[in-house]
Amino acid sequence: MSKPPKPSLASIVAASAKIASARSAAPKASQSAEIVQLDTGTAPVRRPTTLKTRAKQMSVYLEPPVYDQLRDLAHAERAKMHGLILEALDLLFRQRGSRSIDELLAENDR
Q: How many domains does the structure of the chain reveal?
């Protein structure tokens, strides 16, 4: 079974012109272009939506046995290594008496 032919731009314009002419009861000579006013108000401020655009990147050099153990732990827990590193940082912050990651992010959202 063959595919139906793809519509061309000319056929789409012709079809829309037929629909527009069928809808309007006024003669074609009195038709004029419609002027549309765009709302030029201020656009809402959008915060970056992905972690890659919001966060700062930092490299961590791990010895191969440390990396392997972290990878194995992430695999066993069906988690990402990034999440485990964030969990470790959160524990470090608590041990040192600093604010947790959740507290820092909540303060940043205000």
A: 1
> Of 16-30, 32-46, 61-75, where does the model show the most confidence?
61-75
On the question of pLDDT at 92 being above 90, the answer is yes
Tell me how far apart the alpha carbons of residues 90 and 105 are, in angstroms, rounded to a whole number. Answer: 12
pLDDT score, position 27? 54
- Sign of the torsion angle spanned by Cα atoms 66, 67, 68, 74: positive
Q: Alpha-carbon distance 95 to 107, whole Å?
A: 20
Radius of gyration of the chain (CA): 30
Q: Give the range of the structural domain holding residue 81, as residue numbers without chain letter.
A: 57-109
Query: 85 Cβ partners below 8 Å, 6+ apart?
Result: 60, 70
